[in-house]
Amino acid sequence: TMPVPPAVTFSFQIIRKALTEEKRVSTKTSAVDLVTETDHLVENLIISELRKRFPSHRFIAEEATASGAKCVLTPSPTWIIDPIDGTCNFVHRFPTVAVSIGFAVHQELEFGVIYHCTEERLYTGQRGRGAFCNGQQLRVSRETDLSKALVLTEIGPKRDPATLRLFLSNMERLLHAKAHGVRVIGSSTRCSPGPLAPRASGPADAYYQFGLHCWDLAAATVIIREAGGIVMDTSGGPLDLMSCRVVAAGTREMAMLIAQALQTIDYGRDDEN
Ligand SMILES: O=P([O-])([O-])O[C@@H]1[C@@H](O)[C@H](O)[C@@H](O)[C@H](O)[C@@H]1O
Ligand SMILES: [Mg+2]
Ligand SMILES: [Mg+2]
Asked: In which residues is Mg(2+) bound (predicted)?
């Protein structure tokens, strides 16, 4: 597997340092969808480093897309980048933030890297070659019983009354199904390794979300699948990277139990906006 280029490692240090500093904050699709100068700086640093090494490759990146770049995955080798996942946490100096870099060829996810900036944990996964955290092989939770599960989710950027009712109703349904707990930690990519941990079963058993994006999903999908987990659509069908929705779990049984409980929240598609 390719070592992490120094410029990318440097971007991790930039985030850790900026976490405790004053920030210039802007909003994107809603008043709670935040972006800072560090998101842009880190995204440009990662892209310029990768472009130097792979000039013919394509890029899908969160802040470039927010500035109008098309979000279309072609068969070309493509890097799918979230420079800071958990920007709202970052703005509030809440330490759950990550950098996520996925890579696809012929529209197939080949490998992913997620770096937890404050814990300095590097999650990696390569199709057919396993998933690791700082070099330790990862295993998913084998839990199949929802009444024994800890479930992670995220709120997403839409906060209109109808969306909030659906979000809270989905959480209520899982609690009625006696899930041990539901947690919102503010970072999709941090949730995704939720069902994972070195050797033992992961700190969480499942994750679902409406309102995330392909750059939240790409790396995490490879890592979870390579650790033996399932990543699927909220309908129970195959994952659609551009659909802004996901269910992930250590077992298919758990993923299906979650999918069957959920009411859909429509966020459109990354490749339509
Ligand atoms: O914007 P960002 O911090 O990279 O990513 C965030 C996701 O990690 C989070 O789960 C979601 O609820 C937010 O709306 C936002 O998309
Ligand atoms: Mg981001
Ligand atoms: Mg994100």
From this structure: 62, 82, 84-85, 216
Query: Using one digit for the tens of pLDDT, what is the confidence trace for 83-124?
Result: 999 999 999 999 999 999 999 999 999 999 999 999 889 999
205 is catalytic: no
pTM of the model: 0.95
Is 120 one of the annotated binding-site residues?
A: no
Active site residue 240: no
C-alpha to C-alpha distances, 240 to 12, 140, 244, nearest whole angstrom: 29, 21, 8
The predicted complex's ipTM stands at: 0.95
In the residue annotation, 85 being an active-site residue is answered as yes
In 3D space, the residue among 47, 44, 35, 42 whose CA is nearest the CA of residue 17 turns out to be: 42
To test the ligand 1 pocket, which listed residue (23, 187, 210, 270) has its Cβ within 8 A of the most ligand atoms? 187
Tens digit of each residue's pLDDT (9 = 90 or more) over 239-271: 999 999 999 999 999 999 999 999 999 999 999
Query: Is 84 annotated as ligand-binding?
Result: yes
